[in-house]
Write a structure and sequence with these properties.
The structure is a homodimer. Chain A has about 200 residues and is α/β, with parallel strands linked by helices. The first copy, chain A, has one domain: 3-Layer(aba) Sandwich (Rossmann fold). In chain A, about 45% of the residues lie in helices and about 20% in strands. The first copy, chain A, contains 7 helices and 7 strands; from the N terminus they run βαβαβααβαβαβαβ. Chain A has a 5-stranded parallel sheet, sandwiched between helices. Chain A has a two-stranded antiparallel ribbon with strand order 6-7. In chain A, helix 3 packs antiparallel against helix 4 and helix 3 packs across helix 7. Chain A is globular, with a radius of gyration of 16 Å. At the A-B interface, helix 5, strand 5 and helix 6 of A face helix 5, strand 5 and helix 6 of B. Chains A, B: This is Queuosine synthesis-like protein. Chains A, B: It comes from Methanotorris igneus (strain DSM 5666 / JCM 11834 / Kol 5). Chains A, B: InterPro entries: DUF7411 (IPR055834), Rossmann-like_a/b/a_fold (IPR014729).
Chain lengths: ~200, ~200
Amino acid sequence: MEAYVLFSGGKDSSLSAIILKKLGYDVKLLTVNFGILDSYKYAQETAEILGLPHEVITLEREILEKSVDIILKDGYPSNGIQFIHKKVLEILADKYKILADGTRRDDKVPKLSYSEVQSLEMRKNIEYLTPLMGLGHRTIRKLVNEYFIISEKESEELPKSDYETEIRALMRLKGYDPLKYFPRHKQSRVIGLKKEI
Amino acid sequence: MEAYVLFSGGKDSSLSAIILKKLGYDVKLLTVNFGILDSYKYAQETAEILGLPHEVITLEREILEKSVDIILKDGYPSNGIQFIHKKVLEILADKYKILADGTRRDDKVPKLSYSEVQSLEMRKNIEYLTPLMGLGHRTIRKLVNEYFIISEKESEELPKSDYETEIRALMRLKGYDPLKYFPRHKQSRVIGLKKEI
């Protein structure tokens, strides 16, 4: 069974992919890009480290524009990021029958509610898997530490292949300072494996 | 890392155990018993099939009595089963640092809410893992079918090592008919492996 994992090169989507691989899925990694930056290249590097096939999905820039509009209007990023994630899942669900991502139990956004998950699966006739949903942050930290060598830095200093990297880039293009909208927080990228997966 | 999985011999707790084993945990299976029946023996058989160490934890019959009181008062089993599961987790969390069970995304009871999970982990300084929480019923059915040979029958005909089997026995001992309180539903037990775990 092929499972398509939304993949940023970060520790959560990497760990999700590993769990599904260990369960016997034929895992393919998908990185979404909106044509602002070639930031998908970081996910490509991590995919190679994990030894898993990787594909870049280019979606309409309009989705990213709308997300940035929401963030500029709100003054904070959560609704804009939630919007983009739901939109991406809706689009990919038309093509891929088993979709997964790195949503964790303790995440706030992006995260689908239980009824949104049910609705997505039923309307699109797909399976949506979130293998980290039953694990707390402490458990995930220990597993990540066991499997991965990670690079951890402030968001502005560590470009990733996630929504945020292109959102920030588009904000700068439009003359806005992302630092005024995003709280300072650490990002991490998987740059090596500590044990065989 | 040792992970202790609450284990009934059913497909959900078996699949949870397998996921944790594949992730690298040193998995130990725990079956709770309240001294009414020797129903733990079914879990012992399945544990042997899975090749995982198994322990029976005998807890006070009073907990089961209280659960039956709740069910008799309510006229339906969900609150009584929820009561017993939360009580069991509270007690085991004093002894085991990493506790897991087979709670699924689409389960209603027994299931801890997000704040109950947070509270359990923080108060007891443990990790509580529910590896099936990010998987829907269709995904679980496919995985179960891939890994296990199962026996599926009506509850009354398939004794298991779960709370329900002893609850039903205690109700009968007290002169009540479990069929008037439990909806008719299928139970399943893992009786063989289809592939190596």
